[in-house]
Amino acid sequence: MQDFPDPEPGPGEVVVRMRASGMCGSDLHFYRGTASFGGGKDTIQGHEPCGEVHAVGPGVTADMASVGDRVMIHHYWGCDACEHCRSGWPQMCDRENGHTLSITTHGGHAPYMVVPARTLLPLPDALSYKAGAAIGCGTGTAWGGIKRLGNIGGATLVVMGQGLVGLSGTMFASALGARVIAVDVRDARLDRAREFGASEVINSAEVDLTEAMADLTGGRGAEVILETSGVAGADALKILGKWGRACFIGLPGDVSFRTEQQYKKQWTLMTSWTMSTIEQARCANFVVAHQLPVDRIFTHSWSLDHAVEAYQWFDEQADGKGVFEF
Asked: Which helix (H) or strand (E) element contains residue 76?
């Protein structure tokens, strides 16, 4: 356990008082000491923050941020000059001088956090701070993958994995008019998938996935797949039908195929990396417009005083999604 001074905002920065900070699976890389992409023991974790503006630094005008504003945070920022930053994709900064919460700078598992004012996005009044935290990464990542897949209305869409990202994908795809088939190896997660809009569920640990999909699709296979588990890439390709589209967002996510065996299926395969600032705002507005139950994705709430207990529970990866509330 370490003590850190309360942050002070510099030019163009704001201090956000945390109200909710989600626990993401990638946080466990740092908790376990296995992270290979930055961060460390001296970096405060938490890249799913949501709260209210507590203080503003020099140069931050009222149209940028004001004390008391309810805000989400896009947890990346870059040079602000390259085409990716200017189009709302700072995580793809060409100048490679970008920042990521909990990796290159302190995250939201603390009472206060300092970020550039340009990372803030308004949190709609109809959304809770917990919902804003989920949209900041896990739920937003599912939204980004769904948007990459294009029009899914009326399609049979398979969501591989029903953790936070998978449940969010199931929820969005159902709201967009897809017939969703949820796949996981745990019945408890599949029960939750039904609550979030899945038409059918498959426990791939108990039945043959290929046969089950053939039964549900008349032998045609999936039209669209969102792979969120990071371990089911091979299974996804086994059930993807002709002209199918698949987006792989689960990590580490090994995916391979032999062109000679698959080229006649005319697949479109893609990846997605969270979402842009613009899509984060659109995701929040979509949740409001469709009254989607994002809050219920979190199964456990903790205070920072119980962070040790929270991470011990989270490290087991038995089930559920945790959030710190302030």
From this structure: strand 76-77
Report residue 75: phi and psi, to 5°. Answer: -85, 25
Last residue of a domain, one of 271, 288, 306: 271
In this structure, the answer to whether residues 151 and 168 fall within a common structural domain is: yes
Q: What total of structural domains would you count in the chain?
A: 2
Taking only the tens place, the pLDDT of each residue in 72-98 is: 999 999 999 999 999 999 999 998 778
Widest distance between CA atoms in the chain? 63
Please, is 132 exposed, middle or buried when counting C-beta atoms within 10 Å of its C-beta (0-12, 13-18, 19+)?
buried
Q: Which residue has the tokens 């769904």?
A: 146
- What is the pLDDT, as a whole number, of residue 141? 97
User: How do residues 97-123 score in pLDDT, each as one tens digit?
Assistant: 789 999 899 999 999 999 999 999 999
Helix (H, G, I), strand (E, B) or coil at 246: strand
The answer to whether position 263 is within a domain reads yes
Letter string b/e over residues 103-115, b meaning 16 or more CB atoms within 10 A of that residue's CB: bebbbbbbebbbb
> Structural domain of residue 115, as residue ranges?
13-137+275-325
CA atoms within 13 A on the CB side of 190: 17
Contact 241, 222 (CB under 8 A): yes
Predicted local distance difference test score (pLDDT) of residue 131: 97
Indicate the pairing of strand 112-116 with strand 240-248: unpaired
Residue 6 lies in a domain: no
Dihedrals φ, ψ of 271, to 5°? -125, 170
The rounded mean pLDDT for the chain is 94
Return the structure tokens found at 141: 């990542």
pTM, two decimals, is 0.94
* 80 plus 146 within the same structural domain: no
Place of tokens 């990638």: 26
d(CA 209, CA 82) in angstroms, rounded, equals 44
